[in-house]
Structure formats: C-alpha cells, structure tokens
Specification:
Blueprint (H helix, E strand, L loop, with lengths): L63 H15 L4 H15 L10 H30 L20 E6 L12 H14 L2 E5 L7 E7 L8 E6 L6 H12 L6 H4 L6 E4 L8 H9 L4 E5 L3 E3 L8 H11 L7 E4 L12 E5 L2 H12 L8 H20 L24 H16 L10 E4 L10 H4 L25 E3 L5 H16 L30 H12 L6 H6 L12
Helix pairs in contact: 1-2, 2-3, 7-9, 9-10, 10-11
C-alpha cells in the first residue's frame, strides 16, 4: 500500500520496507547528511539551515519508506524561505517522525538531534519573520497617526460585527438568541449591526479531522482552493499519512501551497476577513463572537464611549486597535472581542493578522496574539530609535515541538514576558497603537471557562451570581466559550433572567432596564470585574504551605496597580 500503482499523482510513492540498522546502511537515494553548508537562500538576511543526519532523527530499524519520507520534509526544510514553508515542513516532520505524541524519545542521541534541529528551525523562522514584519511596518507604521486619525469614533459611524461561515449559521437554535440580544444593543445605541456570513475569501475543503493526535486537541487537514482534479489525490495522500504509510510524505511535501494544518476548524477563522470587508465603510468596527452577551443595563453608556473615555480624559488620541488586557496565568489573548478604528495602523495590523492564515497549526487566536506583539514591537522599535523591539522570540511556540504538541501555554508565558518588557505590565501598558483594555476598569471579554475553569455551568461558580456571601462580578461583556452550544444558551438565558429579569427567548427587544448598582456605589455604573483578585484570594486560601513567587504570578497576585499620590 505504499505506492499508488497507476501513479495518478505523477509522483512515485516509496514502498520500501527494508529496515535500516542505525547509520550503517543508508537507503538508496537518501544522503546520510544533507550537508552543513547548504546554498544560501538568495536574500541578504538569509542563512543556510544546518540539519542533522536524517537517520539520527529516526528510530533504529526504521524502514526505508520512513527514511525517505523524513528526508522529503528535511530536504525542503533545509532551504525554506518563508514562515509558511518552514512551519509546514517542520510541523509534519514533527507530527509523523518525532517522539510519540506527547511522549519522550527512546535515546538521548535521538533527542539531541531533534533539539539541534529545533534550535535551527526556530532561528530560521525568527529571522525570516522579523525581516518581513519590519519590511512591512518600518516605513509605514506611525505611533502617532495622521491628523485625521485623532478624532474619537462616533457610535453612529460604528459597526457592531458578528461573522460566521454562512448566513444560516446565525439562524441556528443555539445562536439566534445571542444575535437578537446584540442586535437590540446596537439598535439602542444607534450603531450599525452587521451579520457577515461570507466566510473566507479562499475555499477550504476539509480532508481530515484528527482528534488529539499530535497537536494539542483536535486538528484539521484542509485544502485551500484545490484545483480541478487535485482533491482526490490529496485525499489519497492524507489517508496514507494518517494510516502511517509514511512513504506518502514524499508526495505530501510538494503540496505546501495547497494543504494546511489547522489548530481549529478553518470555518471559524473568518473574523479578520469580515473586519476587512466592513472597516472601510465605517470609522470603528467592534467585533464580537456570537456567543457573547453585553449587559443590557449598560445601554445608557455605550461601549464605544466606554472604550475611549479614559484616553480622551488623559488627553491622548484614541488607540487604533482595542483588545482585552490579561495577566500571567490566563489565556494571553482571546479573539472573541477586538475593535479597530479605520486608520493606517489598523489596516497594517489586519494585513499582518491575515498573513498567518496559511501558517501550519494556524488559528485566529494565536495569529491575533502574535500580531499584537509584532505591532507593539515595531512601535517600540521606532520610539526607541531601534534600541529594542520584538524579534519574534515567541513565534516558535505557535508550532508543534518534536513530540507533536503545540506548547501554547509556553507561548502565552513568553507573550506576557515580552509584552511586559515592551510596553509595561498588566494594567499599565504604554502602547499608542494597541489599547489594552484593563478588565478591572472595563471588562469587554469576560471568559468564565478561562478565569474559573471547572465551573460546571453554575453561574455562581462563574462569579456571575453571588457565591458564599460574596457579591457577583459585573463585567460589561460575558463570553460563554468553552462549552457546547446548548450549555452556552442555558447559561446565557439564566444569566439574563436572574440578573436582569429579561427573557432570552423574547422575539422583540426588551425595554431598557434600570442601571444596576455597581461596586462603585448607587448612581454610578461599574463595568469592570475583579476576577483577578478573586482568583488570587481563592488560590491563596486553598494553598497548603508556602507558595513561590512564580505561583503568585500565575494566580494574578502580582498584578496590582501601583499606589500613586493623589
């Protein structure tokens, strides 16, 4: 089953089964070494990639088909010239030829060979990406904006945007109630409400859905706009690889421009394209995932005004991009909320974000997080006269390591450390382009499954209802991610009924309820949440014995705002 027989692909698939004993009997056609001094990539900033012996990466006794398959990826990896190409060949090499999924190598020699290759690949991707980002932003990004970009956005020229892979998506039973609530909010505030069901500009065909094999959690193999007659051969190759007939790797390596490996379903990666379609016709686009709820008692204030009021009060121009700030130990960026003004910096931000849609292991959340680092890094590089900036230090953690797992937790740790060095710690970020919305002042993306994991669908465990004598938290926007569609709807319905006496099943917009009494006292609204402080206190109470400084940081206990003289 290693060959196609009729050769419909135009590429012979190896069918060798003779085992290789160490490095003594290399397979025919596979050099033992690819060479330590490969040809330059052809650009001034490129460097040849040093690779180990192909046999050093494999288990002793691997069949020749496995050796040829690994060689196919390794040979292309050695001369990859873009992050898309490098990540493609590295990801498949690690998934199918590295350590068992989530496991360890059987020998130190093999582990050291993979470690050496990983270091080389990381260095290559970092250099390539840093060059590309600065080439795009170096002369085009301005931390201060133009004269016409200093005006605060108006609600009447703002868009509240939801997106999906089709129009019918918004009519489904577990989505429509959320859409109605957000539509009512936009109507109250005089904002334009848009449902974008156009999906991605490039058609994606799902070839396989793999549950938890290699990449953390389910991942997808998809073809990007496959040409006539190519879908069948691609499915044959994918089925062969997933059936561990690794000779198919020689053919798979030739499809890097068509085949994609995705961390999440490609249909969900539509928001960057939807924002691009609607930003040109408005001054401000506020994107929300469809499973989010804006507090109905906030309509007298308006989220647009709430976002920009702190900057205007400080005499600053509004930021170009707004995202919820986060502290160490939580999800570094959640893409359920993102807001962009119609400025040059925002369009550059979207361009960088969209470029990552073809990277291996791509998903919109990690792409957004990396884009934030790239833009803030370029901003600080300009303001510091080149003294410091972002050199893509965190980029390698977006891709599988040698045991096939994507170390996203390590990426978020890196993200927090680098962002803190660039623009200051949580709650004190100093970027002029990206407005990091402090959730303790205004929580625009409160995710209970991230903040209070294991809540079991109980609103009191989510801290959205009083619990153990403690008052409920009052975020402006609740994001019900992390559960099934049915559970999300149940939680939202109960939240609306218990907190605001509103039925989520109502077909018409409810009357404006009176403003809730917030933590700031009667007559004054409070739309932030003290989730960080609550998490810190609960973890300290549950801790047995002394705790380390690292634990305190992960629990949010080291992110208190400084005390300033009044």
């Amino acid at each position: 089953n290693g060959a196609l027989g009729n050769n419909t692909l135009g590429v012979a698939i190896p069918h060798w089964s003779t085992p290789v004993q160490g490095n003594a009997s290399p397979c025919t056609g596979v050099p033992q070494y690819l060479g330590m001094h490969l040809q330059k990539l052809g650009t001034p900033n490129s460097m040849s990639l040093k690779v180990p012996a192909v046999h050093a990466l494999l288990s002793v006794g691997s069949p020749c088909s496995v050796v040829h398959g690994a060689y196919a990826f390794l040979a292309r990896l050695a001369n990859c010239s873009t992050v898309q190409s490098c990540s493609f060949h590295w990801s498949f090499l690690a998934l199918f030829f590295g350590a068992p999924a989530g496991g360890l190598f059987e020998t130190d020699v093999r582990r050291d060979a993979w470690q050496a290759l990983w270091i080389e690949v990381c260095g290559r991707m970092r250099k390539l990406r840093s060059r590309d980002v600065w080439g795009l932003l170096g002369s085009r990004l301005s931390p201060f904006g133009g004269p016409r970009e200093r005006k605060a956005p108006a609600e009447r020229d703002s868009v509240l945007l939801l997106c999906g892979h089709s129009r019918k998506f918004f009519e489904s039973a577990f989505v429509a109630p959320f859409v109605r609530q957000l539509r009512c909010y936009a109507g109250y505030r005089g904002m334009r409400f848009v449902l974008d069901g156009e999906g991605q500009p490039v058609r994606h065909v799902i070839l396989a859905q793999v549950p938890g094999n290699g990449v953390s959690g389910t991942h997808f193999w998809a073809a990007r706009d496959p040409g006539v007659g190519s879908e069948g051969p691609l499915r044959c190759i994918v089925d062969g690889m997933l059936g561990r007939r690794l000779g198919y790797a020689a053919a798979l390596a030739d499809w890097e421009d068509v085949l994609g490996l995705y961390f999440d379903h490609p249909e969900k990666q539509t928001k960057v394209w939807a924002i691009m379609r609607h930003l040109a016709q408005s001054s401000f686009v506020l994107y929300f995932d469809v499973d989010m709820t804006i507090r109905p008692d906030s309509v007298r204030h308006g989220i647009v005004n709430l976002l920009v009021e702190a900057e205007l009060a400080a005499g600053r121009r509004p930021s170009d991009v707004y995202a919820r700030d986060s502290w160490p130990g939580t999800e570094c960026v959640n893409s359920g909320f993102i807001a962009l003004r119609n400025t040059r910096a925002a369009w550059l931000f979207l361009e960088l974000w969209s470029e990552k849609s073809t990277w291996a292991s791509a998903w919109d959340q990690s792409a957004l997080a990396e884009t934030i680092l790239e833009v803030v890094g370029a901003e600080m590089r300009k303001l510091s006269g080149g003294t410091y900036g972002y050199e893509s230090q965190c980029l390698p953690y977006l891709f599988p390591i040698s045991n096939g797992l994507v170390p996203y937790r390590m990426y978020c740790d890196c993200w927090q450390a680098i962002l803190g060095d660039l623009s200051g710690p949580f709650g004190q970020r100093r970027s002029r382009i990206v407005g990091f919305v402090n959730p303790e002042r205004l929580d625009v993306n409160y995710v209970p499954s991230d903040l209070f994991n294991g809540h079991g669908g109980d609103l009191s465990n989510m801290r959205l209802l009083p619990r153990a004598g403690q008052p409920a938290l009052d975020p402006l926007v609740v994001h019900w991610a992390g559960s099934s569609g049915e559970q999300r709807l149940q939680s939202m319905s109960l939240y609306m009924a218990r907190r605001f006496n509103i039925s989520a099943a109502a077909r018409s917009c409810p009357r404006r309820p009176p403003l809730s009494r917030g933590v700031s006292g009667p007559g004054r609204a409070s739309f932030g949440s003290r989730a960080r402080a609550v998490r810190c206190c609960e973890r300290l109470r549950a801790a047995a014995g002394a705790v380390s400084k690292e634990q305190l940081g992960y629990w949010g206990c080291c992110s208190w705002p400084p005390v300033r003289k009044a």
